[in-house]
User: Which sequence fits this backbone?
């Protein structure tokens, strides 16, 4: 028996072409194919049966030939600060997380690219759970689609690949996902509003730079010396700091350094000066990230005061520096935390009236 073709694994242009050929085969007018294609990403609908603008007979034929798979929502948590966290269960039982962060009139979705992660960064909850598998394109872009299908819908204005996993180790699926998210006949989010975050997987950085669109690159630096970085991020053996900096210098578009502030580990004024030198070399922006508690290891967050001192040192070197606001603290919204919590079979935290928890 022929397996049904998954339309959500294709770029919008490829899906439209498949549908057009199928319409011809079924002796349907070509505009019917365009109608269906529009409901994949632009104006998403849950499935063929919901496309009531298409004749029933053609909908049934479509459903025999193609599929538009959903991701099953397993849990949803809403923080007092408006941040929402979603846990999706995939067909094989794997769990992945998506976080929606509202700010002013933006809605940033933090999406996952792998189930688990192989990199074992010492402070990261996803790293601690180990690697299960790469996500397929429809499972990555599908996170954005699922939130748009909620009632009321959550429509992303910005995307960051800062959920579970290392996107550059799943480039095969991330590459078409970027097209789906950005294309006008896809989700239609501007490339400058889509950021791929990586520990510095060099072939991935090259592949991203070869794309013509202005996608943003964020580099998880976290330490200004090789020795310290090595102690926090085992991947530094394969992609040492100097090589990552070199790749950042060659990247001809905006680069952001991400730097998790670890109390007593990487947060002295000397570290700030060393980081500043690297940022100057790469003309990079620096994002200082307060440590989200409940990650991994027994790190302590740097105090707010010491984070400002660190930021001031960088700004004194004329480096654009932002201190990221910690969001969703009450719902464990850092990388990997919801899945960890669920798998310990504990009730999600915050199950009281103002920290609304919904478990499907
Ligand atoms: N693998 C990619 C993308 C996923 S992690 C990468 O590492 O860039 C996204 C960001 O969250 C990374 O910068 C990561 O270091 C950071 N992060 C992980 N655990 C964290 C924690 N407990 N507190 C704050 N940031 C964390």
Assistant:
């Amino acid at each position: 028996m022929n397996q049904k073709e998954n339309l959500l694994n294709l770029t919008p242009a490829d899906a439209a072409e498949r549908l057009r050929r199928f319409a011809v085969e079924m002796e349907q007018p070509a505009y019917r194919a365009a109608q269906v294609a529009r409901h994949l990403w632009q104006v998403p609908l849950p499935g063929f049966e919901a496309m009531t603008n298409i004749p029933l007979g053609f909908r049934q034929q479509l459903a025999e030939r193609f599929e538009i798979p959903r991701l099953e929502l397993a849990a949803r948590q809403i923080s007092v600060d408006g941040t929402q966290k979603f846990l999706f269960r995939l067909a094989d039982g794997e769990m992945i997380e998506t976080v929606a962060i509202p700010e002013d009139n933006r809605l940033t979705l933090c999406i996952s690219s792998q189930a688990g992660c192989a990199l074992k960064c010492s402070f990261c909850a996803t790293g601690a759970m180990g690697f299960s598998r790469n996500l397929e394109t429809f499972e990555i872009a599908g996170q954005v689609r699922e939130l748009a299908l909620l009632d009321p819908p959550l429509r992303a204005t910005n995307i960051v690949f800062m959920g579970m996993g290392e996107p550059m180790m799943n480039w095969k699926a991330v590459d078409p996902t970027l097209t789906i998210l950005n294309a006008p006949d896809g989700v239609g989010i501007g490339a400058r509003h889509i950021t791929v975050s990586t520990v510095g997987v060099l072939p991935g950085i090259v592949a991203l730079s070869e794309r013509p669109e202005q996608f943003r690159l964020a580099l998880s630096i976290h330490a200004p010396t090789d020795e310290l970085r090595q102690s926090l991020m085992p991947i530094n053996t394969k992609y040492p700091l100097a090589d990552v900096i070199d790749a950042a210098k060659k990247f001809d578009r905006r680069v952001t350094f991400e730097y998790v502030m670890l109390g007593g580990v990487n947060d002295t004024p000397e570290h700030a000066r060393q980081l500043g030198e690297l940022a100057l070399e790469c003309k990079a922006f620096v994002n200082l990230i307060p440590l989200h508690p409940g990650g991994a290891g027994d790190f302590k967050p740097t105090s707010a005061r010491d984070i400002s001192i660190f930021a001031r040192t960088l700004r004194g070197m004329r480096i654009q520096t932002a201190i990221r606001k910690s969001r969703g603290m009450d719902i464990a919204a850092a990388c990997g935390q919801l899945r960890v919590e669920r798998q310990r079979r504990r009730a999600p935290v915050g199950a009281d009236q103002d920290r609304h928890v919904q478990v499907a």
About this structure: The longest strand covers residues 95-103. The first helix runs from residue 12 to 25. The pocket of S-adenosyl-L-homocysteine is lined by residues 121, 123-124, 162, 166, 197-199, 220, 258, 260, 289, 291-292, 295, 334-335 (CB under 6 Å). The chain has two domains: 5-67, 72-356.
